[in-house]
Amino acid sequence: MLAKIGQREVAIIVIVLSLLGAGLWYYGWYKGAQTHIQELNEEIDRLEVQKQRGLAARRALPQLEAAIREYETQIAEFLRALPPREEFASVLTALSDRAKATGVTLRSIARSPAGSPVEDVRAVNVTLSLESPFPELFVFLKRLESMRRFSTIDGLAMTLGETESTNPSLNTNLTMTVYVYEGTPPEVEEGGAEQ
Which CATH number fits domain 85-181: 3.30.450.20, 3.30.420.40, 3.30.70.60, 1.10.150.130? Predict the structure, then answer.
């Protein structure tokens, strides 16, 4: 049978087989290799971005460590500034003394425990029942701001007393949260960050 096939037919068969072989090579190996090369290039680009981020993080590491040391120092100083739990009575005495000094009548003080998200720090809700004209109350509130205690004023409710007076007395309920420390304050390392 091959003897009957001429050169022309053999050439056509060789061309067809070559085209089939080229097609199989292109779709079987070359296209797969190109896809793999593209995936590898994308992976290289992704890793290059991560490398640049890592190098930037390495350069920023000393500043970050210094900031952490500074914050640790600030936290230690903050905890040392909080009154210990045993001295909470002195906080109440200071509130009473400030009220007397400003001419505000302190009717009652009530306290109740509150939750605190900071370990070893306890929040105490304090409610003060006050009576005074507005100018004295304002001076008292300003003096509360100057207290070297860590507290927040949560609410201030005022009702008018004598309405016939030109300077009527106000009945005031002041609610505040005072923070006390129940643990041992951490030591500050020598050479810590200055404030």
Answer: 3.30.70.60
